[in-house]
Amino acid sequence: MSTWKYIFLNSMIVVGATGLGRILGFVRETLIAGVFGKSYAADMVVIILTTPDILLNFLVGGALSIAIMPELASANSQQFIKLISKFHIFTGIIFLILTALMVIFSYYFIKIMAPGFPPEYVMEASKLLKISALSIPLIIWSGITASALNSKGAFLSPSLGTAFFNLVICGALFFVLTTHWNTYLVIAFSIVVGAFLRWAIQVYSLRNIVLIDIEKSQQVNLNYKTVFNRYSHAFFATFALMIFPIVARFFASKGGEGQLANLNYIQKLMDLPIGLLVGSMATVLLPKIINVADKEKTIKLGVILISISCALIAAIMSFFSIEIITVFFGHGAFGAEDIAELARQLKLASLMLPFYGIVVFLVSTLAVTPLSRQSAYSCLLGVITFCLLNTLFVDQITPNKIYQNLIISYIFISSLQIYFFLHKKGKYASIDVHIKGS
């Protein structure tokens, strides 16, 4: 299969499956609203649904999957299964301890996550968190099995993981809506069941994929130090990208009533193509980058495709800004002036989309090369630049100023990443996977 056909077909699979998960996520939120409305009960359900994921995104994010993929992609059939088992045992020990801590100190976790809860809701939520916390090891193991499947070019099952999880939650919400059973307990247990189903389906899918053996005389020698270094670089890079919206919201709150919410709405519109398009492209190309001889060419191809695609989406967002804002937000409390203001912000924010896309793509792809450290440094320097730009002009801060600073910061990061990429000839030709003779 040609590279272009491989990228197109598999990207469509990932986009479609990921999109289905996002749709079911929207259905899930609709059902929560239908069952609980606007209440502390709704807040409590959201907390127990999201706390394990928030914690794991903070500690792990996509860094773990990226860190272990080179070993998995290079392993023969026998070593492939052994590596998956080792990763399960190693992460299982660590995250079972974390689960135990969350169960023991669930009350304090809830107090930190929701300091405004009335005492009775804090107590109830802490009891439910003791149940939903059991999903943590399962979510981590799903990340390992997803990385294993992706490394062998089996993208459908991992991409459907969120859809499976949300389907179980939606089923539980529909069940309590119609039967009025103990609502909170059903939802708490459904989180664990959904996490288990996602992991179990991926484990079953591992049995059915075709494992492409390397030479029988070669085996992967798992070097935990190498994997940890790769993980730490990917973690710091992805963590830096998570900081941008937090800092942006902080400064937007100084810009007047509703500006923080407006920035959040625009950020969600930016994240939609990034999550679907760039995330899918990175998922599909990572195994290719690890396995092909000409890694430089494959990464360049991805950067070109991301640049063109994001530029086209940015142009569409800018040209049809009024229409897009009207479709998503042109109802309820939004008036004509609010829509016009949000559309103006979308036009400006869309300029950052190509650079944002390149940054996210290179964070994922350079993480499996010896350039992972430089990529992480680039992201950290970008965050510092963004904070300094906003701090220097804090007295004149406006949403437009924040978007301008975001654009400058993403241009700065992508320029650094591309510079390191182009000036490290041959470096990305070798992935840090240790091979030994049998």
Shape: globular
- Helix proportion range: over 70%
Query: Element order, helices and strands?
Result: HHHHHHHHHHEHHHHHHHHE
The residue-averaged pLDDT reads 81
How many strand elements? 2
What is the domain tally? 2
Structural class: mainly alpha
Please state the oligomeric state of the protein chains shown: single chain
Over all CA atoms, what is the radius of gyration? 22 Å
Question: Could you describe the largest sheet, including whether it forms a barrel?
Answer: 2 strands, antiparallel
From the N-terminal CA to the C-terminal CA, the straight-line distance is 32 Å
Which regions contain 5 or more consecutive residues with pLDDT less than 50?
A: 210-218, 433-438
Strand share of the residues? under 5%
Strand order of the biggest β-sheet: 1-2
Number of helices: 18
Outline of the structure:
The protein is mainly α.
Would you write up a description of this structure?
There is one protein chain. The protein is mostly helical. The protein has two domains: 3-220, no CATH class; 224-430, no CATH class. It has helices at 3-36, 40-59, 63-74, 77-104, 106-113, 119-132, 135-151, 156-159, 161-179, 183-208, 224-252, 259-291, 295-319, 321-329, 336-349, 353-366, 372-392, 399-422, and strands spanning 218-221, 434-437. The longest helix is centred in the N-terminal third of the chain and has 34 residues, at 3-36. The model is unreliable at 210-218 and 433-438 (pLDDT under 50).
